[in-house]
Each structure stands twice: as C-alpha cells, then as structure tokens.
C-alpha cells in the first residue's frame, strides 16, 4: 500500500510559480496546461516539509554554512544509493547546477576557448558558453531507429581540431533520456584523458533511472578521472526543491577545486540558502521512501503515456527514455515546420511544451514533455494533444 498520494492535485497558481503564473509574460493564454519546465507538480517529501517548518518556527534566517554532519549525510547517500564515496573535502555548494557550470567555464577556460556539448541537449549549456564569450563546439548525438548514440570519431576529431578545453556531459541526457553505459563513459574518459579535457558532468537527473538501466557516477570510473571531473548534483530535481537553490558540486582535484572556489568567490556567492541547506539535509536523511514511491508513480505515468500515444496518436513516436521524467516526442511524421508545430501545440492543443529546436537544430521536429505530475493532469494534456492532432 502506498504511503504518499501522488494523485492529489495541488493548485500552483498565484504562488509566483514560473510554470503556471507566467503565461502572459511568455506569450501564452492563461488556460494553457504547462508541461515544459522540469519541476514537479507534487509537494515534496513530508520529512522535508517538517524540517522546513521547524526551522521556520525558529524564526532566524541568518548566514548559514556547511557543517560536517551535512558532509556525512551526503557521503552516506552516495555510498548507499550509488556505490560511490565522495571525499568530504571535495564538496562545494552552489545555488544551482547551471550556476556551477558557468562558474566552471570561467574557472577553467578563457574567452574564445572551445567547449564541447552533445546536442540536442539542455539549452542552458550553449547559452552559458556563449554568454561567457566562449565557443560552442557541437558533437551531435546520432539518432537511429528511435535511439541516440555518441559519434565517438566526431567527438575526438572535434576535441583535437578545435582544441577543446572543457566538455559538458549531460548524464542522464536531457532531453533524449539516455543513461550512458559504462562502456560509453569509459570511451569518453579515454578520449578526454588523452587530450587533457576537463569534464563537467551534469548528473542532476541521476536519481531517475528506469528499471533495467544503471547510472554510473562519472568520476567513479577511475581515480584519474575523478581528478579531471567537476561533478554537479542537486536535490532540486529529485525532491522538487529547485526554488530553494542548493546544489552539491564535487571536485576531488585540489587545484581544480581551488580554481573553482576562486571563480565562485568572484561571482559574489558565499554561504548557501539556509532553508535549502536544511531541506537538502532532510531529503538525503529521510526522503528515500518518498523517492521510491515517486519513481514507481513516474514509471506508471510513462506506461500510461506510451499506451495513450499508441492508441490515440500513433504518428507521434516516443523516444523510449532510460532516465529522467522528461519525454522526448518525435513529431516528424506530421511534416510540419517547427514554427507550425509550436503554434499548433500552443494555440490548438492549448499546451505549453518545450520546443525541440531550442535544444539545438538536431531537436527540430521534436517536443519535450514533463510527466512529473498527477495522472489526471497528464491525461488531460494528452487528450488535448490528441484532439488537436487527430484532424491533421
């Protein structure tokens, strides 16, 4: 019997919620159903709410910093959940993973340097590189028979020819849902090691791995790899805490960590958000039962979505996800331009999805949909999609 009610609808309107309350600002009608940004429509784990309530009652929200008990909690979580033990001294706190990526870009590269990404990929990657006056180098993923793979010959050739200094690894990959195998990660390791490329591994979705697949913490492959990796993690996706702005970044190489901290300090950031800190500690201490039930519920949402698409929208191809709670849908069978597809989804289906082309030109003809919501909400959205596309 389930302990937590993920079917309960929680009204998020009028809470300054980016997902629901900014339709007008983003050019959408107020009645659209949003499935775009990657946060969940579920209240977080009760153990986290209890911790936040207790600290709120205390009433003082002064400067906060990391104590050893927090490092102990993180060590225990990664040991028990992922079989990897981070060094306590390797931890650096940032307000978010994108913030950490931008910090790494400034710490380890110079204006004009080349940074490699694998599109179609989380769009802040390219934006972060360009906004920091670095060069975006693309190693596009290869889409074949409904699955994505890495073109390793192109990966290495681009690193050599463009003199790539930094590689942004998305693991699991957002939006295509790949969970990279150990063999794939090992090949990345070999190439980056040979050509002295620093890896920033964004593993923010690594708690959402589907049955039958295994996530490998990237720096766990070898000690040498750990020495050239900046590992970016956060409870924000896992426990729906994005607004509390706390991420756990692990940098085992002391020299790289010192450089990263210097760039972090130059940004003006120092102590973590107090409530984010206590929420993260509660999450990693007592949030596992809630997380396990959440993962089962998301798997159920995926199965229902797959069945709905097969029955009602067979021209839409689901790229089978191996991880994340974000689905990558292939609309190429409709033969629409990206502009026409976006407009039809927005104006006729009355939905707010993430357009595939914003993830790179390789995302043209795709849409990303977030299924981390009660099934009643998701089913309503799918029905609106079906009504809009059945006439095409």
Descriptive account of the structure:
The protein has 392 residues and is α/β, with parallel strands linked by helices. The chain folds into two domains: 18-45 and 288-389, Alpha-Beta Complex (Aspartate Aminotransferase, domain 1); 61-286, Aspartate Aminotransferase, domain 2 (3-Layer(aba) Sandwich). 41% of the residues lie in helices and 15% in strands. The chain contains 14 helices and 15 strands. It has helices at residues 18-21, 46-58, 68-82, 97-108, 124-131, 152-162, 182-194, 223-226, 235-238, 254-266, 274-286, 288-312, 338-348, 375-389, and strands at 33-34, 91-94, 114-117, 135-138, 142-144, 147-149, 164-170, 198-202, 229-233, 247-250, 317-319, 326-330, 351-352, 354-355, 366-370. The strands form four sheets. The chain has a seven-stranded mixed beta sheet with strand order 2-10-9-8-7-3-4, with helices on both faces. The termini are far apart. 42% of the residues are buried.
H-E string: HEHHEHEHEEEHEHEHEHEHHHEEHEEEH
Provide the residue-averaged pLDDT: 97
Total number of distinct structural domains: 2
By CATH, the topology of the largest domain is Aspartate Aminotransferase, domain 2
Name the structural class.
alpha/beta
The CATH class of the largest domain is Alpha Beta
The main sheet comes to: 7 strands, mixed
Q: Uncertain regions: pLDDT < 50 for 5+ in a row?
A: none
- Share of residues in helices: 40-55%
Our measurement of the CA-to-CA distance between the termini, rounded to an integer number of angstroms, reads 43 Å
Number of strands: 15
Computed Rg: 21 Å
Number of helices: 14
Tell me the fraction of residues in β-strands, as a range: 5-15%
List the strand order in the largest sheet. Answer: 2-10-9-8-7-3-4
- Please state the overall shape, judged from the principal axes of the Cα atoms: globular
Name of the CATH superfamily of the largest domain: Type I PLP-dependent aspartate aminotransferase-like (Major domain)
CATH architecture descriptor of the largest domain: 3-Layer(aba) Sandwich
């Amino acid at each position: 019997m389930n302990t937590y009610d993920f079917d309960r609808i929680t009204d998020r309107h009028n809470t300054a919620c980016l997902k629901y309350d900014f339709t007008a600002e983003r050019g959408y009608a107020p009645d659209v159903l949003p499935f775009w940004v990657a946060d969940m429509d579920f209240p977080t784990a009760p153990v986290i709410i209890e911790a936040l309530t207790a600290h709120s009652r205390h009433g003082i929200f002064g400067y906060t910093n990391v104590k050893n008990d927090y490092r102990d909690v993180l060590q225990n979580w990664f040991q028990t959940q992922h079989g990897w033990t981070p060094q306590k001294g390797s931890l650096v706190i940032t307000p978010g993973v994108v913030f950490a990526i931008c910090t790494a870009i400034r710490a380890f590269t110079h204006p004009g340097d080349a940074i490699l990404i694998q599109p179609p990929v989380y769009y802040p990657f390219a934006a972060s590189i360009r906004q920091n006056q670095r060069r975006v180098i693309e190693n596009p993923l290869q889409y074949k028979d409904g699955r994505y793979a890495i073109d390793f010959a192109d990966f290495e050739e681009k690193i050599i020819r463009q003199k790539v200094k930094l590689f942004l690894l998305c693991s699991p990959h957002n939006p295509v849902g790949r969970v990279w195998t150990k063999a794939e990660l090992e090949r990345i390791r070999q190439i980056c090691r040979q050509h002295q490329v620093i890896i920033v591994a964004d593993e923010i979705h690594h708690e959402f791995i589907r049955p039958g697949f295994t996530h490998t913490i990237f720096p766990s492959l070898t000690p040498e790899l750990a020495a050239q990796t900046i590992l970016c993690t956060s409870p924000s996706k896992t426990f729906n805490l994005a607004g509390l702005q706390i991420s756990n970044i692990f940098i085992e190489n002391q020299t790289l960590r010192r450089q990263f901290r210097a760039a972090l300090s130059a940004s003006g950031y120092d102590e973590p958000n107090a409530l984010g800190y206590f929420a993260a500690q509660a999450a990693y201490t007592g949030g596992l039962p809630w997380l396990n039930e959440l993962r089962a519920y998301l798997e159920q949402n995926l199965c229902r979505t797959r069945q709905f698409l097969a029955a009602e929208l067979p021209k839409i191809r689901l790229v089978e996800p191996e991880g994340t709670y974000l689905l990558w849908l292939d609309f190429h069978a409709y033969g629409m331009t990206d502009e026409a597809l976006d407009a039809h989804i927005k104006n006729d289906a009355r939905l707010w999805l993430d357009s595939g082309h914003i993830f790179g030109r390789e995302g043209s003809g795709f849409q990303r949909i977030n299924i981390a919501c009660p099934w009643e909400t998701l089913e309503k959205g799918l029905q609106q999609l079906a009504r809009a596309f059945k006439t095409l």
